[in-house]
Amino acid sequence: MPANCSSQILFVSRTNIVGVANRIKVTWPTVTTDAPDPVPDLVDGLIQLSFIVQAVLGRLAGQQGLSVTQLRMLAVLDDREIGMQQLAGILELEKSSVTGLVDRAERRGLVRRIAVPGNRRAVHVTVTAAGRAVVHLVRDAVRAEIGDLASTLSQRQQGSFHRSIETLIQHYVTQHAIPV
């Protein structure tokens, strides 16, 4: 623990927290420094910004009768044909969830399954022309709305922000071994 922090720390399991909470007094850490820590503000800002982006994505996807997850799937498939397991990995979903997602999109004519030659059990998924049109329509609308928000930053701020975002994304992808 840093020298400039003083606290009493208590770790309790979820099962006994109610009983323990009635019998103890918890003192949270206090930081004694003159300089404010920018990380909490940065994290809070990133979380709030993610809420804004998710709200925009949800609203614009919803206008096309899609969930954000369905939109993500179509965006992933926009430039590739991949297997269900790989799609599940990219979307960070269980394969059974991806199967339902693909089923619903296939019924709407947005994606199609393709048999893999030489492997009767494997299928690949690809976006149809209708699916591609929907994902491009939503992508253009998202870019316009988020672009309008980003335009409130100066060119220099936009460049700096873009570089920072790229660094964060690359770090996350590397640390979590997310297929792209």
Structure description:
Helix content is 59%, strand content 12%. Strand 4 (111-116) and strand 5 form a beta hairpin. The strands form 2 sheets. It has a 3-stranded antiparallel sheet. Strands 1-2 form a two-stranded antiparallel sheet. The protein has 7 helices and 5 strands; from the N terminus they run βαβααβααββαα. It starts with a strand and ends with a helix. With 180 residues, the protein is mainly α.
List the helices and strands and how they pair.
Elements: E1 5-6, H1 17-23, E2 30-31, H2 38-62, H3 68-77, E3 82-83, H4 84-91, H5 95-107, E4 111-116, E5 119-127, H6 129-150, H7 155-176
Antiparallel strand pairs: 1-2, 3-5, 4-5
Helix pairs in contact: 2-6, 4-5
Briefly characterize the structure.
With 180 residues, the protein is mainly alpha-helical.
What is the fold-level CATH name, i.e. the topology?
Answer: Arc Repressor Mutant, subunit A
Query: SSE order, as H and E?
Result: EHEHHEHHEEHH
**How many domains make up the 3D coordinates?**
1
Q: How many strands, which pairing sense, and closed or not: the largest β-sheet?
A: 3 strands, antiparallel
Main structural class? mainly alpha
**How far is it from the N-terminal to the C-terminal residue, by CA?**
37 Å
Can you identify the CATH superfamily? Winged helix-like DNA-binding domain superfamily/Winged helix DNA-binding domain
**Count of beta strands:** 5
* Spatial ordering of strands, largest sheet: 3-5-4
Q: Count of helices?
A: 7
Beta-strand percentage range: 5-15%
**Helix percent band:** 55-70%
Mean pLDDT over all positions: 83
* Shape summary: globular
- What's the architecture, going by CATH? Orthogonal Bundle
Radius of gyration: 23 Å
Q: CATH class, anyone?
A: Mainly Alpha
